[in-house]
Structures are given as structure tokens and as C-alpha cells.
Write a structure and sequence with these properties.
The relative contact order is 0.04. By secondary structure, the chain is mainly alpha-helical. It has five helices and two strands. Helix 1 packs antiparallel against helix 2.
Length: 131
């Protein structure tokens, strides 16, 4: 996206305009996705702590931004900083997301669907009917 698309747009008529418009729209899509990911977390934290929405949003956004900067710097200045064994920050985050969080999310999803589809008195039924 960041290599071939700019080269392709330069060969089009008004290519610079289309290239700038594409990357601007890509920025808007990324920001809207980030907001939709941040919204549920901020809502839960706000309800549990009774802090202001403004403060909670900036707090969680700052934490996520710092984690992102740490992952970014793992390729440069912090390449010798290790978190999990011989893994740098980026590889540690990748390991946790891939090997722990994704399987855990699938197990929770299967458990909830099992409770819904088979109508068993499980945590899945309790959570769905309490919402």
C-alpha cells in the first residue's frame, strides 16, 4: 500500500491529487477504527471508576499510544530491550496477542455460543440475558 500505490498513482492523470486523497481517506479510516476500538474500553472504565469521559479517553489513548511507540522503537533504539525471554517489545506483544489473547478469545466465544445454542445454564446464558 505504501510502496506500490504511490508509484501507481503517479502514472495516472491527476495522480498526485488521487494519491493525497487516498492517503487522507486512509487516515480517516484508521482514526475511525481506532475510535471504535477505544470506545467500549473507555465506556467500561468510565462506568467502573466514575471518572470523566474526557479523562478516561485520554488515559486509555495515551496508554495505547505508549505501547505503540514501544513497539515502533523495538525496530530501532530499543531493539536490545527484551520483555519475554529473547523477544524484543514488538515480538513480545506479537507473542502475547497470537499465542495467548487470540486462543483465549476463541475459547470464550465457543463457551458463550455453546451456552446460547444448546440452551444450557452456563455463563454464556447469564451474560447474554443480563445485557
Amino acid at each position: 500500500m505504501f510502496i506500490s500505490l504511490p508509484n501507481a498513482s503517479l502514472n495516472l492523470p491527476f495522480g498526485q491529487f488521487f494519491g493525497i486523497a487516498f492517503f487522507f481517506l486512509l487516515l480517516i479510516a484508521a482514526l475511525s477504527s481506532a475510535i471504535s476500538i477505544l470506545e467500549p474500553v473507555a465506556s467500561v472504565v468510565q462506568q467502573k471508576t466514575r471518572l470523566s469521559r474526557y479523562f478516561v479517553t485520554y488515559l486509555i489513548g495515551s496508554i495505547v499510544w505508549l505501547i505503540g511507540v514501544g513497539a515502533l522503537l523495538a525496530f530501532n533504539d530499543w531493539s536490545d530491550a527484551y520483555l519475554l525471554g529473547e523477544r524484543n517489545i514488538f515480538d513480545s506483544l506479537d507473542y502475547v496477542a497470537t499465542n495467548i489473547l487470540l486462543p483465549l478469545g476463541v475459547l470464550v466465544l465457543v463457551y458463550l455460543l455453546y451456552g446460547l445454542l444448546l440452551n444450557r445454564p452456563t455463563l454464556g446464558n447469564y451474560l447474554v440475558f443480563q445485557i
